Amino acid sequence: EVKLVESGGGSVEPGGSMQLSCTVAGSYPGNRYIRSNCVTWFRQEPGKRREAVAALATSGRASYSDAVKGRFTISKNGAQSELYLRMNNLKSEDTAVYYCAAMGPSSCGVPADPDTFGLWGQGTQVTVSS
Fold first, then answer.
1. Which of 5, 11, 22, 75 registers the highest number of CB atoms within 10 A of its CB?
2. Does the pLDDT value for residue 40 go beyond 90?
3. Interatomic CA distance for residues 42 and 94, integer angstroms
C-alpha cells in the first residue's frame, strides 16, 4: 500500500526554525504521487480539527494559511520525490502534529478540506516551547 512518510519533527524554542520532509513509501516507489498531485501540509492539535497550512499545486503555485504565511515555505526537491515544509520564527501556537497529504491536482490551495485527500502520512510532532 502506498503511503506518505513524514520526518523532521521535534522540539524547538520559540523563534526557532525546523524543516519537515515527506516522502513516498509503498508498492509504487516513484515520485508520481508528489509530482502529479496537489500536495499539502496539515497540522492538528489533540481534540481540534485538522487544518491545512501550506499547499503546493502542480503548477508550482504555493498557498498558505494566514497563521503561517510569511513564516512557512512549502517546496519539493528537484526530482519531485520529496516534499518539504520550512518553518521559521516558530511560535507556541505552531505546536501540533504535522501531516503531509496528496490528492488530485484540482482546486489545490489553502484552506483545504482534509476529507478530500486520499493519501496521508502518519504525522510528525512539532513542539514549540521555551
1. 22
2. yes
3. 11
Match 513516498 to its residue by C-alpha cell: 24
Let me know if 71 is exposed, middle or buried by CB neighbors in 10 A (0-12, 13-18, 19+): middle
Q: Indicate the residue type of 82.
A: E
- How many C-beta atoms lie closer than 10 Å to residue 98's C-beta? 24
Instruction: State mean pLDDT over 6-30.
Output: 89
Beta strands in 51-123 (DSSP E): 51-56, 62-64, 72-76, 82-87, 96-103, 119-120
Pair 66, 72: CB distance under 8 Å: no
Residues 77-87 pLDDT 10s: 988 889 999 99
**Which helix (H) or strand (E) covers residue 3, if one does?**
strand 3-7
